[in-house]
Amino acid sequence: MRARIVTCLAIFAVMALSNAVVPLLPLYGDGATLQGFIYSAYFFGAFLLTIPAGVLSDRFGRIAVMRSGLAITVLTGAALCFLSDPVPVIAVRLIEGFGAGLFVAAAMAYVNSLPDHEVMSGYYMASLNTGLVLGLVVSGFLAVYTPGLSGIMVFTGASLLAALLSVSIPGDSPVNRRPDPGRVLSGLVTNYRWFWFAAIVLVGITGVVTSLYPEFSPAGSDTDSIWIAGMSIATILASLAASRMSLPPVSSIRISALVMAAGVLITLYSPVGFLVIGAAAGIVLIAQMAFLADATMYQGAAMGLVSTTSYLGMGILPSAAGILADSSGYFVTFCIFSIAALSVALVIGRCSCRAMPAPGNS
User: Fold this and answer.
1) 142-151, 176-185, 193-202, 279-288: which has the minimum mean pLDDT?
2) Is 54 helix (H, G, I), strand (E, B) or coil?
3) Are the CB atoms for 9 and 162 separated by under 8 Å?
């Protein structure tokens, strides 16, 4: 039980710290370009480390990799409390992303290794999304009423608490001390290629609507922020509910893709679409973990891949959507991404929850 609580606390703290910088970006750099680099450096670092972290967790054990990720998170959070020059801050955010990549891949593999992984995955995803929401809200509130970088300090402290508590968690046994990473990853990619496509598209669409809506919406930024936060809250509630229902993973992803396609179109006319998209995303997140729990023994590599494809979707699709909106308009762009969600519903059935043959060891 202690390990489960610490894991949820840790993912909350890691995600909250990652978002706590957002309201404070003007303190670190002037202009959209510098602020964009500071913000995105974290995600680039996480993108680079999730697959290696997954492979390492299979080889050396998940708890050891989780502790390493938390240590890096604490150190970089502390550094952000004292740095002000944009270039070092960008470098620190990149390293902070490394820590997140290490922790997230190993923690997801740990969760999926538990006997009650379906229920635990709901708590994990709820903690993750709660961290994202509260990191943004609390840091923004503190920035108004207290001087300096109070939000960074608060969530660095939360990360330190999680890191200290993680020392008391017993280590786990590696899946295989000498896995062949190339064969493991190529087998996962080849056997479940439509699953990775689904992860890129469905997770990426949440970033698409988030990035497009403030410019598209006639409402003010305060109203838009409430609806965008509502999407995360819908994700939290849906993930908790789905984790207790033992839904068939492939069918759940197909139905969620259809719901998300409808949600994208609804967003053209009403921000209620954010709640629809958020609920569908929550079910997708739980279905992803349930699918991979049954599909392979190499949970570290699998969780590294699912994290990487999610970051890839969040990185590529919003950028593509922005270019498309400028050239073809918002209506066409929303329709295209609705069709993209429909395409997931068509191809996901080609995946099956069969176990992937274990590759030979080197």
Assistant:
1) 176-185
2) helix
3) yes
357-361 LR contacts (CB < 8 Å, sep 24+): 357/187, 358/297, 358/298, 359/179, 359/180, 359/183, 359/184, 359/187, 360/180, 360/183, 361/176, 361/178, 361/179, 361/180
Helix (H, G, I), strand (E, B) or coil at 53: helix
Rounded-to-integer distance, Cα 239 and Cα 359, Å: 32
Residue type, 167: V
The encoded tokens of residue 202 equal 């469905």
Specify the pLDDT at position 22. Answer: 76
Distance CA 195, CA 215 (A): 32
Q: Which of 30, 102, 101 is nearest to 64 (CA)?
A: 102
Q: What is the pLDDT of residues 308-338, one digit of tens each?
A: 888 788 778 887 888 888 888 889 999 999 9
CA angle, residues 335, 130, 215, in degrees to nearest 5: 35
- Cα separation, 336 vs 32, whole angstroms: 28
Task: State the pTM of this model.
Answer: 0.76
DSSP letter at 244 equals T
> Measured at the alpha carbon of residue 42, what is the angle toward residues 215 and 221, in degrees to the nearest 5?
20
